[in-house]
Design brief:
By secondary structure, the chain is of the alpha/beta class. The chain has 4 domains: about 120 residues, P-loop containing nucleotide triphosphate hydrolases (Rossmann fold, 3-Layer(aba) Sandwich); about 80 residues, no CATH class; about 50 residues; about 190 residues, 3-Layer(aba) Sandwich (Rossmann fold). It is globular, with a radius of gyration of 29 Å. The strands form 4 sheets. A 6-stranded mixed beta sheet has the order 5-6-7-3-8-9, sandwiched between helices. Strands 14-15-16-12-17-18 form a 6-stranded mixed beta sheet, sandwiched between helices. It has a 3-stranded antiparallel beta sheet with strand order 2-1-4, with no helix packed on it. The relative contact order is 0.09. The chain is built from 18 helices and 18 strands. The two termini are about 50 Å apart.
């Protein structure tokens, strides 16, 4: 068990937490949610002992071990993948190295014998003889192939490093598991494996995530950070959302009733205060009016941007025709002989483990890259707008946000238009004059979505648009795409996002492409799709051999 007692933290005049008291009980998974900047990652660091609060303390059960998903991707560069995972249990790793040091000695003293017996006993107590098999199971589940496991961490790509660090946090059955955005860089298959792992995990889990489906699958409780406090709700994310909205509505209704009653009393007093026969009643109502109090509604840190895509014209009959498209990078075939037709009303989710294939496909469609062979043709009525996964090139000039948005605004519109648009995207007041060089990842994404909206396209091409966004912005974007009447081609690892937006699924597999007109949940549950995928993968393996 882990508990926070009287936790208070402020940065200057900005209060992050004030006298927070919360207890996390074993056997439960707590989703820690809140707007960007609310203090989610900060609170995890306080619980892990990596950051000191201004007041209060954290209590952990006797001999209980805390494991936390590390965000420093370079901290273990000189260690092998397997050793990095085992280092998730520091004492076990220490004992393992001490054993090896003793057994590697040419001469074995009596003192070494006594020490080795002590170490063996402690090693067995910590299930040390199962370390390699446990590490292998975790790495396999997280998609790290066997050939990478004895390589040094510095030899791995960034996404593989994230998976290894996640395996490190999960290793050794920690008593308290702290996970900060564990689904980042994971494909849907691996996220599903992690959901299953956490559902079977019997100790305490506290997780920060912007993936609503993931939170719904793993959470037994939601710890909501807002108003400088943390309030715990029993149930998953959807239950929290319904409960919090109901609580908010009840408070608003109560205030409305009090306001209506006060207006009624004021009206009576005003009408009859000078009437001698009604003076007594007017005085009585004055006393009632004085007793009425309207509960102050605290200002929430949660804010939803206004995301609405309005096409300037509808799509014609021909949207996009692709014939025999093939692309290979660094000797790896990303897709081969891809042929497809995009139809009116299509909202196509491109899925599959190979993110590079999806990004490259989008870059070919937008003219940023040439295919090796094949062709594609956009209809004459089509105007597309592209949201890339990497957006650094759009922010190289150190503009203010007003200047930056002005590049994509209608020529006749001026600063007032830009300020109004930015305000709806949560850049109000002085925020609109911020320099692009100081923007966070989420702020950049909101800028890029503004650019897409201003283009008025009838076809959207979106590559991982939910990355870096908080839950409120994801919800706003999700609703905006559901309401969009024209064509969408997109890739996302957010299950809820894909399942609520897409009406057609195209999967890139190593052996070819699967294309089905159905929802994402139907696609995942389809035996026919699963059989097709197995055949394609088997055919690819035979060709490779």
């Amino acid at each position: 068990m882990i508990s926070a007692n009287g936790i208070t933290l402020a940065y200057g005049k900005r209060v992050i937490f004030k006298d927070v008291n919360i207890k996390f009980v074993p056997g439960n998974c707590y989703g820690l949610i809140g707007a960007n900047g609310a203090g989610k990652s900060t609170f995890l660091k306080i619980l892990a002992g990596e950051l000191e609060s201004d007041a209060g303390n954290v209590s952990v059960g006797s001999k209980e071990r805390i494991a936390m998903l590390r965000q420093d991707h370079y901290a273990f560069d000189e260690h092998t993948v397997v050793n990095t995972v085992i280092m998730g249990h520091p004492r076990l790793y220490e004992v393992m190295n001490a054993r090896e040091e003793i057994y590697s000695k040419a001469e074995f003293s009596e003192e070494d014998g006594i020490r080795s017996a002590e170490l063996e006993s402690e090693f067995a107590e910590m299930n040390g003889y199962e370390v390699e098999s446990e590490a292998a199971v975790l790495l396999n589940g997280l998609g790290i192939p066997e050939e990478l496991r004895n390589k040094q961490m510095k030899e791995l790509e960034g996404s593989d490093k994230v998976r290894v660090l996640l395996a490190q946090a999960l290793f050794g059955n920690p008593d308290v598991l702290l996970l900060d955005e564990p689904t980042n860089h994971l494909d849907l298959k691996t996220i599903s494996w992690l959901e299953d792992f956490l559902s079977r995990f019997n100790n305490t889990v506290i997780v920060v995530s912007h993936d609503r489906h993931f939170l719904n699958q793993v959470c037994t409780h939601v710890a909501d950070i807002d108003f400088g406090m943390i309030r715990v709700y029993v149930g998953n994310y959807d239950f929290w959302y319904q409960a919090s909205q109901l609580t908010l509505k009840q408070k608003q209704d109560e205030n409305r009733k009090v306001t209506d009653k006060a207006n009624e009393l004021k009206e009576f007093i005003q009408r009859f205060s000078s009437n001698a026969s009604k003076a007594k009643q007017a005085t009585s109502r004055k006393r009632l009016l004085e007793k009425l109090t309207i509960e102050e509604m605290p200002v929430s840190s949660r804010k939803y941007p206004y995301i609405v895509f309005k096409p300037e014209r509808a799509c014609g009959d021909i949207i996009l025709e692709i014939s025999g498209l093939t692309k290979e990078l660094d000797g790896v075939v990303l897709f081969k002989d891809l042929t497809m037709t995009v139809c009116k009303g299509d909202k196509i989710a491109f899925v599959g483990a190979n993110g590079l294939a999806k990004t490259t496909f989008f870059q070919i469609l937008t003219g940023e890259m040439e295919p090796d062979s094949g062709s594609f043709r956009w209809g004459v009525t089509i105007t597309s707008s592209y949201f890339p996964k990497e957006n650094n090139s759009y922010f190289e000039n150190d503009y203010t946000l007003i200047e930056w948005l002005g590049q994509y605004s209608p020529p006749a519109e001026g600063e007032s238009f830009a300020r109004g648009f930015l305000g709806r995207m949560l850049f109000s007041g002085d925020e609109a004059t911020k320099k692009t060089s100081v923007l966070s990842g989420g702020e950049r994404v909101r800028c890029m979505l503004s650019k897409v909206m201003l283009a008025g396209p009838n076809t959207l091409i979106l590559d991982e648009p939910t990355n870096h966004l908080d839950l409120e912005s994801i919800t706003a974007l999700n609703n905006g795409l559901i309401s969009y009447s024209e064509v969408i081609l997109f890739a996302s690892h957010d299950h809820e996002f894909v399942s609520t937006v897409a009406n057609r699924i195209i999967e890139f597999t190593p052996g070819g492409v699967i294309d089905r007109v159905m929802t994402f949940d139907e696609y995942l549950e389809s035996p026919e799709v699963s059989e097709t995928r197995d055949k394609l993968c088997q055919g690819h393996q035979e060709l490779t051999l």
